[in-house]
Amino acid sequence: MPEIVELGERPYVALRGKVAMDGISAFADRLGEVVDWLAAKEIAPNDAPFFKYDVIDMETGLELEIGFPVDDLRSGEGEIVTGVLPAGRYVRTRYHGHPDGLREATSDLLAWGDKEGVAWDVDGNRWAARLEIYLSDPREVPDMKDWDTELQFKLKD
What we know:
The protein has helices spanning 24-28, 31-40, 102-116; strands spanning 3-7, 10-19, 50-57, 61-69, 80-85, 88-96, 122-123, 126-127, 130-134, 148-154. The protein is of the alpha+beta class. It has one domain: Multidrug-efflux Transporter 1 Regulator Bmrr, Chain A. It is globular. The two termini are 22 Å apart.
């Protein structure tokens, strides 16, 4: 069941890209580039990896970031960017299952928000913070059907 929570600012390092709807999986495979960049800078992630959907446009594609929250924020390089997830109220819910089911889980969460009358922090197609946080470590949970993912969508202040 979705819940509304108050979250503080969270610095992060991520890979940014423009991705077609059918290219999300290939983009996700590039998360290792972020891991390598962090290792080279001797920066340790402080939480689970995430996908941050900045722009969602079914016709032209997605503007997407994949990365990790960190304590030590430095300047990015090339496609590696740094940023801060904004503080504020978020709707948070968990999904258990293969990532292929996240589209339906997201639709369910948006429908819940419509029913509850929440106001998402979105301007047109651009979201302030719309996250999928991958809580399961594939080395410990190799079967993707057993993965846990948390959805966090920022609400308007």
